[in-house]
Amino acid sequence: MILPVTPPAPAPTPASRQVRRARARQRPAAQKQSQTQEIMSQGAARATARATAAALHQAGLTEAEVLAWRQDLQARLKVIQEHPEQHLGHIEEQLAALAKEPLRLAAERAAQAKANATPCQCHQCQGALIDCKYLQRHITSRFGRLTVWRHYGWCARCEAWDFPADHVLGMPSQAPASPYLQEICALLATKMPPEQATEVAQRLGLDLPRCTLDREAHRQGLKAQAMRTDWLAQLDTWESLQQLARQTENPASQPFTLIIEMDAWNIRERDDWGQTETLREQGQKVERWHWVYTGTVFRLDHRTQTQGKRALISQRGYVATRAGLEAFTAQLYREALQRGLLQAELVLVIADGAQWIWNFAQDRFPNARHQLDLWHGSEHLWEVAHDLYGKGTPEANAWVKPLLAQIHADQTPEVIRTLTELHPRLSSCLQEKLQKQIDYFANNAHRMKYQAVMEARKACRQGKPTLEQRRLADQPLGSGAIESTCRQYQCRFKRTGQFWTTAGDEALMCLETLWRNGRWHELYSHVQPPAALN
Ligand SMILES: [Zn+2]
Questions:
Q1: How far is the CA of 162 from the centre of ligand 1 (A)?
Q2: Ligand 1 centroid – CA 127 distance (Å)
Q3: pLDDT single digits (tens) 38-48
Q4: Quick one: which of 21, 221, 234, 271 has the fewest CB in 10 Å?
Q5: Which among 172, 209, 167, 166 has a CA at the least distance from the CA of 188?
Q6: Helices 179-191 and 210-232 meet at what angle, rounded to 10?
Q7: CA torsion, ordered 485, 490, 492, 493, to nearest 10 deg
Q8: pTM, whole model, 2 decimals?
Q9: DSSP code of 234?
Q10: CA 415 to CA 440: how far, in whole Å?
Q11: Residue 226 CA, ligand 1 centroid: distance in Å
Q12: Could you give the 3-state DSSP secondary structure of residue 169?
């Protein structure tokens, strides 16, 4: 095969020394000139953008823009239509990509028109601003980067510069992202680690750099905490407390039982990171693990079943805080008030045997019925059985069965008697262990009342329950609801190798709790409140 031969490029003519020097002298001048021209053209473009922005008073797209968009749309859809391997996913991708620029333009113009319509008055005191100027701002939005021009001026009364349109647009001075993206940052950060969140956002077509996500999520967490502080202040005066009790969410038409469950788990923090040795040398104790107090509140009539017979609580309140027991008790009490504490026919507190829980329950819910988680009590009996006869042995099984039946029949004093009679016959090591269990049952005996619920359930199974038994059968015997709540929080806050700062975890936990409680719209006014579930 004869390959075509490319003709060799002509060799450059060597320039004389004088010519090279002359060119070198001219170059800086030419560069300078092009820089000056660039600055002038940038200035002209800015002046045009400013004038266009200032003249905008109505949002929307022009006929020509809509027409161009429609033509582009038809051309792209035609390609997919004729492509044998492209499906609905390709249509979705193309439509989303195609809509982005027109939507960005519409959003930018709508924001600009709103900014232009905002009077140049201080947003705090409504006084006229002086020394007014017009300045642009870039905002990362759901549809891409927006540029908005807005007036700002000096308020002599407040002694501050003010950008009134920023407040109208929901854009605090430090926020790089639009209100929608502020919300999305908060939501993503509560659901997954930031590196994953950035990738998920990108896949969903949102331009959210990691630094924006981190900064915004933390800022939103602080906003949520400030809101929570305001809500807790309602507990401080009798009037606001009464008002809160009257504003019970979804008031019930029938008498109802309110269930309150609580527990604690720990989280790993790294405050004083790198100073461990120094602090230890100074005799200070360095704690990395800290308690997160968690609670849940729900009405028994909100317990239901999915079509697949899975138990479900349709409406419930959550509390989770790292800010200590006192903060937790106030938050849980407020949540209980909002969920109908003062209207409930019966309030039932269910938990494991931790003393702090019963102290708190006695203090805040003295009229409630306190119930020890049935399975927790049973586990203590199994521990004795294993100590006596060995784990998994038929003897252990045979020994524990009648005692478990006694617990189900509200005969805990009988169980204590059996354990006490056993005590002198054991070795000193086992005696010590057994004494702990005897104390446990003695301390909790008055919280171990399960018989009525057990019998109600049996009557339901046999198909002949009384009306009262039908209601009772739904009453929980254990604190499974709070255990699953703790596990759900831990999925985000207790991952392997994960460390938090106190400020960081509390802010995110506050956001997560707001979301779970269905009060997201109270933090973000652009979000629709959830429809009542019953
Ligand atoms: Zn002012």
A1: 8
A2: 6
A3: 777 888 888 89
A4: 21
A5: 209
A6: 90
A7: 130
A8: 0.82
A9: G
A10: 12
A11: 23
A12: coil
